[in-house]
């Protein structure tokens, strides 16, 4: 029987670890209880926590490149990408979801901001905010009255229907003909597909580059990640188990993963890719949350792993300590914007036993960076398989 | 009515009011209605301090019934007047006071019942229901979340109002009667002007716009210092002896929960025996309040996690569900209580006083000290009566108890309005809550621009037209200011969905660049996060980290 690698966590780091391990001569099982932070991603692929200045992006590890290819729904541009956001900024990134419009790669000419009555989308205001080359582009892209109000993800799901996508391209074509101008590209609100990036297909049908602006977390980009991941994992023959992992124990020189529903998985190596607080791998447990009036018995760190494993949490490589007060750490010490180095954002797994690997943006000490999670995941998956 | 702008070189007014809280806007409105020319200066924003951060209860002062029944009568009568002039801005707060079992508690319960029987005599003045005495089973039926052994409960009826909105409406009405209002404009000095024939006695007030740095100068016959906890600071600017205007600044906070978690305001006892409460308030719940001497920066008052823990512990003793409720923020303000050395904070008088500075060598300069939201109108009337008759020679009587505040003349039907303008009934209802009959004008003006009817803040909800209205007619010039006027971004999502858009609109209205709009949105989100994190529970922590991540990736963290 081939050795088994068990990956805990289904975000980008976990998916990358599972896909990397599956390329070696091992069996792979991925256990997750839902997608955390990666399901809330905006679609931008960043390498640094604070978006880097626009410009060339350094080399990407081969393992990570192979996994991006396997996912198929993303691009990384060596020259660096630029995305517009509904927050009104033009922000650099290393790459992104194929539905996002990379405005760094456009031919000269005005970029149309497609006007429509959607929450948080004022084409006129955004065009001014993004800069000179952006102009309001009038087109009737809402088909039913409820589309003025449905959430971005629901609206995006409607464009998974080929007939609807063709209808949208017709509206855009009509509008281009009516306005008789040479447009470099069109920016739409987050709306182009929930199960796959539909922007390339729409661009082909409409005859010019179309793409989305970056929206709020929890939009369609997260759904597209889940769909691309599921497709890639099943193509790679990775076994999936939908369950919450409760604990990881040593067993005869190997590891036993205990999942909810009395499931046990015996694995040669385990990759912990459970994410931080947003991902759900870490929980905040203040002392006063437990009892109404009693002083808590004993004290322990205010953040802890949601599963029982021989790993500790830390911030920037330093393990978290127990608080020295009866009622725990004061929240003011933890969170943005009281403190720049916010443990709520930065706490992750810092040290692990042999055969137990950790991966993720927080392990790499680079919160919110898709690329760091991807590269770290690929590395951990490969190491676990060997 | 356009917002007054630009400098007033040596302009002559009758009265300069310093302070844009409820006392300042109240007295400015009162004097403007009597025909005085008024200019009001506010250092921050209207309702920035205690007025905008109070629970907004216009209660009858049931606490004072045994010691000063005339205060109770005055409070109840004035509460009735506020209801008459701003019927749209009211909401009912039925109180439930559970009485625990214990030594002598049955006797205490009888006494309490008798006490509230006496209070019932005043309830008619403010259109409230008489109290009810309940047995233990009925008390638990009304609020099944109560714990502990109780002998019974008492209900009594009070009214609440949005304090920030009340200030703004007073200011708007003052301006419509000729007053001028300058927000974010700090008074720098108040000095005697050289006497001349036209104005034998007048003062020169110098102020500076804190955003642009522009200087302003006004000549006034009288000056009113209505700056609440800032009172002694303002008096010092006029070279007055601070001893006459001493306040004992008492900081109070509330924890805001994401929805109405009870039907009744529930009273409970904190660990030190103080009374604390949990109260359904508009579409959220408030837990309050603390009262602690405060010596910090008045421009930057915020709740601490220790205060939050104290309140939650106190309320959880009666209603443990409060521990698992989701806190979405805190408010903090500083009460300008009359000074006394010795008594603990709760025992301090909530009375008010108009201080005449003639003895300090500054005739016709007054300080309004103390007071509370519930009787602001009466306090304003007392100050205005004195100024109008003694200093300005105006004979017109006070009319603030009878003339409705803007929008208070009628309360339109929300469903009809929502049909006519194709907005949701909830949006119509909240719009009417804030604007009363003026909701109609606001929607009429928006009719030509369909975008104006879009919802900017889905939690409250707030329409785009209302944001623009806040900037054009209510002196809002940041996302924070808009939130104070409309409650935009103060709901469950903490501004995640609306702050950036609101910043865009404010920037557009003020002809500022979009980057400025992002900066003001970011400032609002940071301010909210700071208030929220002190009440952080296990379930909010995740959202908090997500908010930070979102803000950093889409707005930048500068």
Q: Could you please describe the fold and organization of this structure?
A:
- The complex is a heterodimer of chains A (386) and B (558).
- Chain A is an alpha/beta fold and 386 residues long.
- Helix content of chain A is 25%, strand content 25%.
- Chain A has nine helices and 20 strands.
- Chain A has helices spanning 12-22, 62-71, 123-130, 152-158, 162-179, 199-206, 220-235, 343-346, 370-385; strands spanning 4-8, 27-32, 44-45, 74-84, 90-97, 111-115, 134-138, 185-188, 209-212, 239-242, 245-251, 254-259, 263-267, 269-272, 282-284, 303-305, 311-315, 318-319, 347-352, 356-358.
- Chain A has a five-stranded parallel β-sheet with strand order 10-2-1-14-20, covered by helices on one side. Chain A has a four-stranded parallel β-sheet with strand order 7-6-8-9.
- Chain A is globular and about 70 Å long.
- In chain B, a hairpin with a 5-residue loop joins strand 8 (203-209) and strand 9 (215-225).
- Chain B has 17 helices and 19 strands.
- In chain B, 36% of the residues lie in helices and 23% in strands.
- Chain B is α+β, with helices and mostly antiparallel strands and 558 residues long.
- At the A-B interface, helix 3 of A face helix 8, helix 15, helix 16 and helix 17 of B.
